[in-house]
Structures are given as C-alpha cells and as structure tokens.
Design a protein that fits this description.
elongated, 11 strands, about 10% helix, about 180 residues, single chain, 1 helix
C-alpha cells in the first residue's frame, strides 16, 4: 500500500514539474507587432520605414511575406490594422489594412508657434502586389464582423473642422 502511494506521488510530482515550467525561447525586436490572421494563426509584423515595406514573419521568425506599402507623399505609416489571406478577395495574394497619417499646419493659422497641427488619417486596403482595394479618408479604425454567414467591414470615419466633429460608420460587404 505504501509503495503504491509513493509511486502515485512520484508520478504526480513528475507530471506537474514536467508541464509547469515556463521555457524561454528567445526575443524579438520591440518594433514587431503580432497579428492574428482569419484562420487563427499568428504572425509577427515589422515595418521598414526607409523602404516602406512590411515584413510578415511566422512565429518561428522565418519570413512569410514581404509587402511594399504605397504610402502617399507627406504621410507616415500609422498602424498595420489587419492582415488577411481571403477576407477581401479570393486570390492567393495577402491583403493588408493599414492607416496613414499626415500632419499639416492650416494655411489660415496665424501663429504656428502655438503648436496647432491638423491630423489627417487615411485607411487603406491593398493586396500584396500593392494594388489599392480601398482608400477611406478621415479614418484609421475598422472592424471585421461576421453574422449569419455574412462578413462585413465597418470603417469608422472621424470628420472634424475645429470644434465641429461628426462621426460616421461606412459598411462594406465582403466576399
């Protein structure tokens, strides 16, 4: 009886110690962002500002895709929002949703030392070849929803002129 109890305790001990350890695998640069694809897989994303290129890595840090972003003049990349394999079209190319930002000083502003800057956002959807699938001014937010087998993309626009602001949601049907 004692031998059985000791064996059970030893088995339990080895089971808990074998599966309860956190194991360090390495590190990645802090400039990476993790993204979950629509199939549930995770990827790391890194942006090369000089070459305006997004690199998409597998979790084992192997390069999966490289996409050059068509960023308009005087704009900066704000954020990569969404990466998809089949959400926006059914071809074999990856699609990216990203936002750009432009900072401008209004022409009618009399004293630029006060620090007033107008911020203009643009939401972009492109294929991995750089083809523009959608461009929405005054937006840097979106959401993909699915209900009753229908997939929609909601794009949130923020339109403001001084203290006058209005928001609207654009609804797009996805294939």
């Amino acid at each position: 009886m004692k031998a059985t109890a000791i064996i059970v305790l030893l088995v339990l001990f080895f089971c808990f110690t074998g599966f309860s350890q956190i194991k360090y695998e390495g590190k990645i640069d802090s400039k990476y962002k993790s993204i979950k694809l629509e199939d549930g897989s995770f990827m790391y994303v890194k942006y090369d500002k000089k070459n305006q290129t997004v690199f998409i890595y597998n979790l084992d840090n192997t390069l999966w895709k490289e996409v050059k972003l068509p960023i308009p003049k005087n704009h900066l990349l704000d954020e990569v929002k969404y990466i998809s394999k089949k959400t926006f079209n059914k071809d074999d190319q990856v699609e990216l949703v990203y936002s750009c930002v432009e900072y401008t000083v209004p022409d009618n502003y009399e004293d630029p030392t006060e620090g007033f800057v107008k911020i203009n956002f643009t939401l972009n959807v492109i294929s991995e070849s750089g083809e523009s699938l959608l461009r929405v001014e005054n937006s840097n937010e979106m959401e993909i929803i699915e209900t009753d087998g229908v997939i929609k993309m909601l794009v949130y626009k923020h339109i403001s002129q001084g203290f006058d602001t209005s928001d609207e949601t654009l609804i797009y049907n996805l294939p």
